[in-house]
Amino acid sequence: MRLLRSQDEVASEEILRDLKRYLQSLPFNFHNASIISGAEEGLYGWITANYLMGNFLKSNLWNTWVRPHGAKTIGSMDLGGASTQIAFTVPLDEGVSQEGYTRVRLYGYDYNIYTHSFLCYGKNEAEKRVLATLVKEQNNSTLMHPCFPVDYSMNMSASDIFDTPCTEQPRDYDPAKQFLLVGTGDPAACRAVVLSIFNLASCQGQANCSFDGVYQPPLSGDFLAYAGFYYTAAALKLGSSFTLDNFNSTAWEFCQKNWTTLTANYKIREKFLKSYCYSAHYVYSLLVDGYKFTDEQWKNIQFKKQVKDSTIAWSLGYMLTLSNMIPAEAKLLQLPMSNSVFAGLLFMFSALAILSLMFLIISLVRACY
């Protein structure tokens, strides 16, 4: 909807108005419907990730919800179809007047969060931008696609590529024009064309800048990468945590497999399988060239779909905020020690009490005789 609004605000408002009218007709107490901003989506995703990880609250020995001892938060990265978001905490005194920072109070504690959403850099829209680049560079109805596997080809209309605000239509644009995409399985060329859609030159000479001239403070802490990030790692048959070199080499090998080999070894639908070489190089370029993850920082990323059987999505964070399950001024018990230390001390004192009681009983029995 944000993508539609950027292209046709009137159309997006009409859809929203019809949606509200329909929801109001249903037998429940409907309050409102709106299009959230990209920054809000990033923030709600961050809340969801940390809530599921137990970084805000944790049940102690007395089944009371307390803030975990030495609590730390994790950053979140969401890769959708139209946009991608990154969010992580920074010191409370940082970036007070800079764009991209949001200060929130959760369960009685303040958090300063940097968040940014890149519209048109979602996995699907970015792939259209790659295709648009191939059309421009090759200027032919038959396009050699380095990210598609060898022995794979497909037809695609110009409207599938250019009927979006994320791509620039050619001067002689004909939406009915057909292109034949032929896979060449060239990982180096795929990496190059994917990287070309990022405007890295706009950050040249700037220390704290990701891409497209967007300010980004230095990365810190652990990160949870979900949605498209997870599905890409899963398609490459990687776990939730792996090195950057492992990801890169696996992506390279995947891209060099022909279509027959891929269909025989991967039980993935064609519409997704054909694009996972592109997805792998896109994830690499976004995280390494865009967000500036180093080899060491990459080790702090976990690629997950769920946490404790709950799917990671911004909607949970939105619900928690609106339902007041995150009270602004909640007073929480903060133990001066961790639960494990307290349990150990409790066991020790209990054992001493039992031994003392036994000693007293033995002494009384001996005194009677």
Automatic annotation (TrEMBL):
Pfam families: GDA1_CD39 (PF01150). The active site is at E41. ATP binds at G81, A82, S83, T84, Q85. GO terms for molecular function: ATP binding; GDP phosphatase activity; ribonucleoside triphosphate phosphatase activity; UDP phosphatase activity. One of its GO terms (biological process) is nucleoside diphosphate catabolic process. Keywords: ATP-binding, Hydrolase, Membrane, Nucleotide-binding, Transmembrane, Transmembrane helix. InterPro entries: GDA1_CD39_NTPase. The chain crosses the membrane at residues 340-365. The keyword Hydrolase applies. GO terms for cellular component: plasma membrane. Belongs to the GDA1/CD39 NTPase family. This is Ectonucleoside triphosphate diphosphohydrolase 3. The lineage of its organism: Eukaryota, Metazoa, Chordata, Craniata, Vertebrata.
